[in-house]
């Protein structure tokens, strides 16, 4: 059975989980081939942590979670493609926003989705900042400042 690769999971972890899910007994020699040399834990510690404790039920539960993570990853990739398509008419605006320190393409996409690109709908820069919730508040009552 081919197990989908989870992109946000370490290479060593993927290899070990795939071996566990396939019911393999993980020997230290095989483990050395699976584990990336940068892994901080020792091969012996890893082998001791997994061997002898994982039963069929555990493998089944791991497989369900692994497959669900794969499904979620595929869904996220599809959504990211849709966002890219929807942003295509706004390439120039995305590039301009992405040029601002602290703003990446994901933030630019959020800004465009939330505020649009026509700033004439806002009376002033202060109005836009207030609408976006980024203007500083002045919470004062009876001469007492509240934070």
What does this structure look like?
This is Transposase IS116/IS110/IS902 C-terminal domain-containing protein. Pfam families: Transposase_20. Residues 95-146 form the Transposase IS116/IS110/IS902 C-terminal domain. The protein has helices at 11-21, 28-34, 43-50, 56-87, 91-98, 105-115, 125-132, and strands at 140-141, 144-145. It is mainly α. A two-stranded antiparallel sheet has the order 1-2. It has a domain at 89-135. The protein is built from seven helices and two strands. The chain is 58% helix and 3% strand. A hairpin with a 2-residue loop joins strand 1 and strand 2. It starts with 10 loop residues before the first helix and ends with a strand.
């Amino acid at each position: 059975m081919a197990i989908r690769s989870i992109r946000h999971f370490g290479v060593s972890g993927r290899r070990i989980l795939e071996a566990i899910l396939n019911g393999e007994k993980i020997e230290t020699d095989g483990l050395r081939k699976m584990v990336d040399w940068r892994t901080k834990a020792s091969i012996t510690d890893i082998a001791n942590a997994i061997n002898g404790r994982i039963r069929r039920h555990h493998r089944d539960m791991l497989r369900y979670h692994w497959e669900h993570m794969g499904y979620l990853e595929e869904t996220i990739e599809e959504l990211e493609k849709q966002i890219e398509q929807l942003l295509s008419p706004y390439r120039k605006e995305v590039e301009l926003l992405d040029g601002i320190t602290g703003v990446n393409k994901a933030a630019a996409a959020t800004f465009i989705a939330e505020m649009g690109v026509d700033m004439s709908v806002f009376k002033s820069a202060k109005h836009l900042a207030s609408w976006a919730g980024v203007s500083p508040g002045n919470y004062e009552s009876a001469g007492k400042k509240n934070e």
